[in-house]
Amino acid sequence: MLYQAYQFQDDLIAPLRDLARRLQMFSATAFWNPGSEMGRQFSAAMEMISRFEITHERPDFAITSALIGNRMAPVTVESVLDLPFGTLLRFATDTDVKRPRVLVVAPLSGHFATLLRGTVQTLLRDHDVYITDWANARDVPLSAGRFGMDDYVDYIMHFLEEIGPGAHILAVCQPCVQALAAVAVMSEERHPATPRTMTLMAGPIDPRESPTKVNELAVSKSLAWFENSLITGVPWRYRGAGRRVYPGFLQLVAFMSMNMQRHQDAHRKLYDHLAKGETAEAGKIKKFYDEYFAVLDLTEEFYIETIERVFQKAELATGDLTHHGRKVDPGQIRNTALLTVEGGRDDICALGQTSAAHDLCRALRPHLKRHHLQANVGHYGVFSGRRWEGEIYPVVRNMILAME
After folding, report:
1. Looking at residues 312-331, what average pLDDT do you find?
2. Is the sign of the CA dihedral 16, 21, 24, 26 positive or negative?
3. SUPFAM superfamilies annotated for this entry (predicted)?
4. 300-315: pLDDT as tens digits
């Protein structure tokens, strides 16, 4: 009944949000001066109420152009391969120059792939970029079947096959484990679409290293606790009715609880900016939270298997990970160059968890391995923002260029 209770509460609040939007519009033509201090404060209060909402639809990537060389080139988003639980998207650029093809593997951890909008925008400067656009499990009918960790690895391999030989792979956060597994399986099979480079950014290859609050929570409860406390059925109003899921709104609450004071301070600042008419400053905060409050649900099997196999048993690090019953051996990777990236202040995936991949890829020669530690950035700073663009991205670009 967890999902139904959440939906019931949201349905109750919806009229209040709608009323706040109407009152905000009314305030613009009210008898008081809308530009006055009272008018701005009233409008700000109404906007804060209207924004009290979690959305479940993927926002638009809103990438329409990219800086290529010394000009801005148009960008169009194309669906290359559409599967029930995810779509391979390509950001096609208007250029005749052949550029390295990069598959960005987005996390499946409660947010949409659009969270990596900044990552994609930067990569487009020098690359032909593809991304895994994961579906919201509540919108996938039961007839589509299950989607667990092995299926996730299958999707990565299908997408690489579709892109073709000679591509590169870049995984952010949680899917670093599955990306490494996919490359290991493809390497052992000598698959022609095995990527030339593999960049793993802030992912839990070995979550036993310097465990964070996220890691500690995953191992502090039994698997039965997660199943009984966090898994619920999709309400009948949605296409995925009856599917058992880990709701995105629970993941959002978990993330926010880790830094609740920071989020409270951000919303106080948002109100102050709105009340003072500082639209540019308010717009930056609204843009972030519009994305942050857009959530997707995970299938029960993917969530539970991730808790058990990635965090509780650390199967990849211990050598016990399997793919459809077949052992996954990163030691089979011999020709795919490895780059790992970690943030010095990452409180979600701590130092040492991602770089553990170097020991697992034991057959790689030293010149095919590189680790980059970015000081003074947290988890999101690894793949977005000023340090990503100016300091981390050049390392990624050079690794890919060296293997072209």
Report:
1. 97
2. negative
3. alpha/beta-Hydrolases (SSF53474)
4. 999 999 999 999 999 9
**Whole-angstrom distance, CA of residue 39 vs CA of residue 266:** 22
Judge whether 295 and 111 are in contact, CB under 8 Å: yes
* Domain covering 65-214+331-402, topology: Rossmann fold (3.40.50)
Residue 291 is which amino acid?
E
Residue-range domain boundaries for the chain: 65-214+331-402
- Residue 381 is classified by DSSP as G
Between CA 12 and CA 20 the distance in angstroms is 14
Type and span of the H or E element at 123: helix 117-123
- Go through 357-377 and write b for each residue having 16 or more CB atoms within 10 A of its CB, e for each that does not: bbebbeebeeebebebebeeb
CB contact at 8 A, 84 and 65: no
199: which strand partners? 170, 339
The pTM (predicted TM-score) of the whole model is 0.90
Tokens of 164: 């073709």
Name residue 232's beta-bridge partners. 245
Instruction: List 343's β-bridge partners, or say none.
Output: 374
Q: What gap in Å lies between CA 388 and CA 122, rounded to an integer?
A: 9
Q: Position 352: which residue type?
A: G
CB neighbours of 59 closer than 8 A, spacing ≥ 6?
A: 112, 114, 290, 291, 294
- Is 308:223 a contact under the CB 8 Å cutoff? yes
The tokens for 174 are: 């949680």
